[in-house]
Fold:
Amino acid sequence: MPEYQLYCFAQSGNAYRAALMLNLIGADWEPVWVDFFKGGETRTPAYRAQVNEMGEAPVLVHGDKKFTQSGVILNYLAKRSGKYLPQGEDEELEALRWIIFDNQKVNGLLGPYRFLKNWAKAAGDPAVLAFLKGRIDGSLSIINKRLEKTPFLVGDRPTIADVSLAGYLYYPAEEFGFDIGKDHPAIAAWRERIKALPGWAHPYDLMPGHPMPQ
Ligand SMILES: N[C@@H](CCC(=O)N[C@@H](CS)C(=O)NCC(=O)O)C(=O)O
Structure:
């Protein structure tokens, strides 16, 4: 059995952070597909009792340890592997600062926006979509400005802050209805730098469930 199991599904940018990290560090891992869309698996009592009380993917299993929250998973894997690890307290806190900003205001908004556009049972309310789009534009502009100054979020080397930011940034522009790279050139250039790292793979190639099972 592989060393790590990751509960995930192809459309999840939150899970992509963990899957990408496992690949980038060359870990021996296998995905466990979560039937998020059709089965509503994360909302079932069984999932919440046995897999994650928070009702979310990703979940990383490592022997008798289990971790949820992609930021925690990234930290754990960086500490174990020594890769993409911020060095020293200042860098650690700086990486954490960007991971929290990303979770709340970048990928934390891109995920629900894309869900409302593509898969919500009741079509997304235009006013809600417009509100989210405004917030997303503002957050992406902040990230773009940062990446105009340094090649990676925390300086010259990629760290877990960059792996976190990758979340939804490689999914097709059609799924958002706008082109992140075209609107934010420094993010487009950063995307290419991350893509060039050994072990990088697209979320639809890395995690099961794409195309969506009928
Ligand atoms: N902050 C969490 C977010 C996880 C998350 O929201 N995952 C989604 C899938 S992309 C989920 O499981 N949502 C279930 C729900 O909200 O009911 C992380 O980074 O791991």
Summary: Strands lie at 4-8, 29-33, 59-62, 65-68.
